[in-house]
Specification:
The complex is a heterodimer of chains A (about 425) and B (about 160). With about 425 residues, chain A is α+β, with helices and mostly antiparallel strands. Chain A contains 15 helices and six strands. In chain A, a hairpin with a 5-residue loop joins strand 3 and strand 4. The chains are: A alpha+beta (about 425), B mainly alpha (about 160). The interface between A and B is large, with 40 and 54 residues.
Chain lengths: ~425, ~160
């Protein structure tokens, strides 16, 4: 990974990066000294900038005229409002001209809605009252009808069955119905189709057959009855080759449906338990899938780097920037801007690069400001550093350092490096 | 709608005036511009109010600045809109610091300055990008540059004063 740019570091400190980016950057910061020191620098800049912007408070001053004469009650100790703009201000927004018209319109809509609700409610009540006189409705066991049961698709056969007094108790309609249909040669096609699905739904459908036809009128039931007889006969003709087998299927399905419906009625708690277990199993499956996805996503990443002792980190080959302790490489323009004038160089030598280092790392420099560092390598590969910082009023470069620290104009210079002091002193004369 | 606007007003007015004051350096002007911003919100209720309000307010600042230039008025960045400091020393120091920061802020480009002020009002990068019409990827760099330049300008301002004194 290349060095982190300043924008990324700011985004990191502002908490604007994705988690994956943050972990990547943290891994890099763990190994890159230059980026680590840059991060510290950015932290300082960010904190200082926030502090500076925060220092620009809106002046308390005299607040704008408000309709509050009570505030001048104690002139000797004037109450100074620290942030008058934070008080609920006078809202100078005009009320819309047609506000009254809108209100009236809304009221009209509400009235209309209320009238609709009343009419619908009354209609339901009236239909309920009429329903009690219906010959079928007294036979309906409304209290036992579960709202969660889906409406059954009711065939004409089933509508006919509803007329039978034997169909009244819910869930026990199958057998009496079958018995009542004994004169018929066999069960109609629809019933057989349902009977061939030995599931709870088909049982429920059969069981609900007596309930679902309440809307039919007697005449309609009679009609469907006649149609049904015809259909039953047609079905019988079609299924003539194996009437015994059909009868066996019918009875088996009816038995199964009966058992299912009895089980459902007698054990509603079991059903709840089964649903709960199914939900838990689904949740487990979800968790498992999420774990698999996470594993797949992280499989491509390199394994987590174990924490290495300090000595190992130092043992890694260091770049020239790291050796020179430069946290940011800059161009001539930026360096000149920092110094307020041209950059000083050693005549006859070519700098490797120019960078910034922290002021704390250069003796005699202002620790609060960066120092421009020009980095050289001599013919034997030894590093030579020419540090420069614009001086503030009253800032002294300090003595010692073998007179290798001096001031030219308003720039403090400090020459040091791996060669001996004599070599450095010879180079000092070539600094321009 | 009026109720919503009233809520918006209570929620964002303080923040908007503060940002406008930092941007213009003039409290009365900041309040006027904030009022004007909310008046525009009445005319065209925004869907995403915060970025909308601040974008409109910043547009108004720019328009106002251009108009002022046309009319030959100088921007009153350094105008002392407070009465001359006669109170305790800390008031004086605060005013002086505030003026120095404003001067440093004035050295920034318009985009950098606005990004910085929006960040100071708690905007995230998405909101800054949407308010200023920039891409989100550019906000980190913009803020980095703005912060660095602000700090440098403020320090050089302080250094100049020290030298002068």
């Amino acid at each position: 990974m290349s060095h982190l740019d300043e924008g990324t570091l700011h985004a990191l400190l502002d908490g604007e990066l994705e988690l994956s980016e943050v972990s990547e950057i943290q891994m890099h910061l763990g190994t890159c000294v230059a980026c680590g020191s840059r991060l510290q620098e950015v932290k300082q800049v960010l904190a200082e900038a926030d502090r500076l912007v925060g220092a620009m408070e809106v002046p308390a001053g005299t607040p704008r005229p408000r309709p509050e004469p009570a505030r001048t009650s104690s002139p000797r100790t004037p109450i100074r409002d620290p942030e008058p703009w934070n008080e609920p201000p006078v809202l100078l927004v005009p009320d819309p001209i047609d506000a009254e018209a809108k209100r009236t319109r809304w009221m009209r809509v509400f009235k209309l809605a209320a009238a609709v609700v009343v009419v619908v409610g009354a209609g339901r009540i009236i239909s309920g009252a009429f329903g009690t006189s219906h010959p079928i409705l007294p036979e309906r066991d409304l209290t036992s009808a579960s709202p969660s049961v889906p409406p059954a698709v009711v065939s004409a056969v089933e509508s006919r069955r509803a007329d039978s007094p034997a169909a009244t108790p819910r869930g026990r309609s199958s057998r009496p119905l079958a018995q009542s249909r004994a004169p018929l040669p066999s069960a109609p096609a629809k019933t057989r189709a349902l009977a061939k699905q030995p599931s709870a739904e088909s049982a429920q459908t059969l069981a609900d057959a007596g309930v679902s036809v309440a809307e039919d009128t007697t005449a309609a039931a009679a009609d469907s009855d006649s149609q049904l007889l015809a259909a039953g006969e047609t079905g019988d003709t079609a299924n003539e080759p194996a009437p015994e087998a059909a009868g066996t299927l019918d009875s088996a399905a009816e038995e199964k449906a009966k058992q299912d419906s009895i089980a459902r009625e007698s054990n509603p708690k079991d059903e709840l338990a089964v649903r709960g277990a199914a939900a838990a199993a689904l949740a487990d499956l979800d968790r498992e899938r999420r774990r698999e996805r996470a594993n797949a996503a992280t499989a491509a990443l390199p394994p987590a780097r174990p924490v290495q002792p300090e000595s190992d980190a130092v043992a890694a080959p260091r770049t020239l920037e790291q050796r020179a302790q430069v946290y940011l490489r800059v161009g001539l323009d930026e360096a000149a801007k920092q110094l307020g004038g041209p950059v000083h160089v050693i005549e006859g030598m070519s700098p490797q690069f120019i960078g910034l280092t922290r002021g704390q790392m250069v003796p005699g420099a202002d620790p609060a400001r960066p120092v421009v560092r020009v980095v050289y390598l001599d013919s034997r590969g030894r590093m030579i550093l020419l540090d420069q910082q614009r001086t503030r009023a009253g800032q002294a470069p300090g003595g010692a350092a073998g007179n290798l620290r001096w001031v030219t104009g308003d720039v403090m210079l400090y020459l040091r490096g791996e060669p001996s002091v004599d070599v450095l002193r010879s180079l000092q004369g070539r600094v321009r | 709608m009026t109720a919503d606007l009233s809520e918006l007003f209570e929620q964002y007015y303080g923040s908007l005036v503060r940002m406008l004051y930092r941007r213009t350096g003039d409290r009365d002007r900041a309040e006027d511009l904030a009022q004007e911003t909310f008046a525009r919100a009445v005319a065209a209720p925004p869907n995403n109010p915060r970025p909308w309000l601040f974008a409109v307010a910043l547009n108004l600042v720019r328009e106002d600045g251009r108009r002022a230039l046309r009319q030959g008025r100088r921007l009153e960045l350094l105008r002392a809109d407070d009465p001359p400091p006669q109170g305790p020393d800390e008031d004086f120091d605060r005013n002086e610091r505030s003026a120095a920061v404003r001067a440093a802020l004035a050295t920034l480009s318009e985009r950098d300055r606005e990004a910085l002020l929006l960040k100071a009002e708690g905007f995230n990068y998405d909101e800054i990008a949407s308010t200023l019409g920039l891409s989100k990827g550019a906000i980190g760099t913009t803020l980095a540059r703005a912060r660095r330049r602000l700090v440098e300008a403020y320090r050089s301002e302080g250094r100049g004063k020290n030298v002068a004194s």
